[in-house]
Design goal:
- Helices cover 29% and strands 35% of the residues.
- The protein is α+β, with helices and mostly antiparallel strands and 196 residues long.
- It has 2 domains: 52 residues; 120 residues, Pnp Oxidase, Chain A.
- The strands form 2 sheets. Strands 1, 2, 5, 6, 7, 8 and 9 form a 7-stranded antiparallel β-sheet that branches.
- Strand 3 and strand 4 form a beta hairpin.
- The longest helix has 46 residues.
- The chain is elongated and about 110 Å long.
- The termini are far apart.
- The relative contact order is 0.13.
């Protein structure tokens, strides 16, 4: 009797397995059919130009690369470049004479540099060594993403006007910084020519 029951349950299991396989086969056939229909729809859309194909230029990177504020180096005789952590350039004003069709450029304001003030080398000592001297030229290089120079400012005949020494505070752990202000006689901007 037990053997007979075991045989019936085996047959039931076999029938159930066959039904499940049939259902799986139907699902697979439906998926294959759907994929074929989607592909045929894509081909017909392609023929009617409904689907946009990217050109070689669009697949590649775009030419837009922003300049990042922290990518710069300032070159001044007597001051280590790595100490300078901030720059504020003077404003440039343009006066257009409609009658003569000429443009006059004038500088407004000063060059302001922010420097780290480490124990050694002392930025205070380096700045104080410039008091009363005319700095012939300061060059500011604007760097690209790989360290290449993409823009450049050249400032001429500078005089140190003001040093703002660091603020001291027992409740602060901020890095000590100095601000220096220079008068500027002339500023020229040089930049890399970009080809399109």
């Amino acid at each position: 009797m037990t053997k007979f029951k075991f045989g019936i349950s085996s047959i039931r299991n076999a029938i159930q397995t066959m039904r499940e396989k049939r259902q799986d086969k139907k699902i697979k056939e439906k998926l294959i059919q759907q994929t074929k229909e989607d592909f045929n729809q894509f081909k017909s859309d392609l023929k009617q130009d409904k689907t946009k194909i990217l050109s070689d230029d669009e697949i590649q990177f775009t030419t837009f690369t922003p300049k990042i504020q922290s990518r710069f180096i300032v070159h001044i005789d007597g001051i280590a470049s790595f100490l300078i952590c901030g720059v504020e350039l003077p404003k440039v004003r343009f006066l257009v004479d409609v009658n003569d069709k000429s443009v006059t450029k004038s500088l407004e304001g000063d060059l302001v540099l922010k420097l780290y003030n480490p124990i050694a080398p002392s930025a205070e000592e380096q700045l104080e060594s410039l008091i009363g001297k005319t700095i012939e030229k300061i060059r500011i290089d604007i760097l690209g993403p790989v360290g290449d120079i993409v823009d450049q400012y050249q400032l001429y005949n500078l005089q140190l006007k003001e040093i703002q020494y660091p603020k001291l505070d027992w409740f602060s752990n901020d890095t000590s910084k100095i601000t220096a202000r220079f008068s500027v006689d002339k500023m020229i901007r040089e930049f890399e020519e970009t080809t399109e």
